[in-house]
Design goal:
- The chain has 257 residues and is α+β, with helices and mostly antiparallel strands.
- The chain folds into two domains: 124 residues, Sandwich (Immunoglobulin-like); 60 residues, no CATH class.
- 36% of the residues lie in helices and 22% in strands.
- The protein contains eight helices and eleven strands.
- A six-stranded antiparallel beta sheet has the order 3-2-5-7-8-9, with no helix packed on it. A three-stranded mixed beta sheet has the order 4-1-10, with no helix packed on it. A two-stranded antiparallel sheet has the order 6-11.
- Strand 2 and strand 3 form a beta hairpin.
């Protein structure tokens, strides 16, 4: 009897010294928890989820919580004892890439006085991507198959295929196409002019003479002759053209004498 009284006295003194010690354990036990399931559907580009390597796993990460779930034989990831919060779900695989999900585990409002059901947890999911604003939610993923489906983006590529030589890739170059068109015009135009009848050719030559561009290019004097062909640009820049022009009147005067 004395031992039980002393034990009760010590327990009362401990509660007086630290009142939060008695309330911490019940709060932890009554914190709502739920089970979250993510599963991989059989669709392109992953027709068979069972072909994923055994090291494939999924993670739920938040600011102060993190969960990890391996790939089960049924092709799903089961997270147990998930507390309320907002999480980022990622599927890590060595062969395929998956779209991340935003998972919100929300607590329902408690039951009111009118008898409406309440309490428990509500789980919702949205597709997202890294670098996106957390408040900017994407397309909501409906619950199906007892959980949420994660979408496969495609197989991972660790090597870049070396580009092969192709003639079509050269012909697709705009500069090559312009050169080919210019070559065809340069070779084909003289042959087209030669095959014209005399009346059409004479009319075409008259049009070329009246064209101001043809006179600038030397087409007004003689067909096929370029008046700038004998012009020496280097001598003109050196000043020899001016001295030659000055010497012509003197020689002409000397000839008249």
């Amino acid at each position: 009897m004395q031992i039980s009284l002393s034990t009760a006295l010590l327990g009362a003194l401990a509660l007086l010294a630290d009142p939060s010690a008695a309330s911490s354990k019940p709060q932890h036990q009554h914190q709502p928890q739920t089970t979250l399931t993510l599963w991989v559907p059989s669709s392109q580009p992953l027709p068979n989820p069972h072909t994923l390597p055994s090291t494939t796993h999924a993670t739920l990460s938040a600011l102060r919580a993190a969960y990890d779930a391996p790939l089960t034989a049924a092709g799903s990831f089961v997270f147990r004892n998930v507390t309320p919060g907002s999480y980022l779900a990622d599927v890590h695989s060595a062969t395929h890439a998956f779209a991340p999900l935003r998972i919100d585990v929300l607590a329902r409002a408690p039951a009111d006085d009118e008898g409406e059901a309440g309490g428990g947890l509500v789980v919702r999911a949205w597709e997202t991507y890294r670098g996106n604003d957390w408040d900017n939610k994407g397309q909501e993923v409906p619950r199906s198959g007892g959980g949420f489906a994660v979408r496969a983006l495609g197989p991972r590529e660790y090597f870049v295929e070396r580009g092969s030589f192709s003639i079509l890739s050269i012909l697709k170059n705009p500069m090559i196409l312009m050169g080919l068109v210019s070559m065809v015009l340069f070779i084909g135009m003289p042959k087209l002019i030669e095959n014209m009848d005399p009346e059409t050719r004479a009319e075409w030559e008259e049009q070329q003479k009246s064209n101001p561009m043809s006179s600038l290019m030397g087409g007004g004097a003689q067909p096929g002759a370029n008046p700038m062909g004998n012009f020496d640009m280097a001598a003109y820049l050196a000043g020899q053209g001016a001295k030659k022009d000055d010497a012509e009147p003197a020689s002409s005067k000397g000839g008249k004498r």
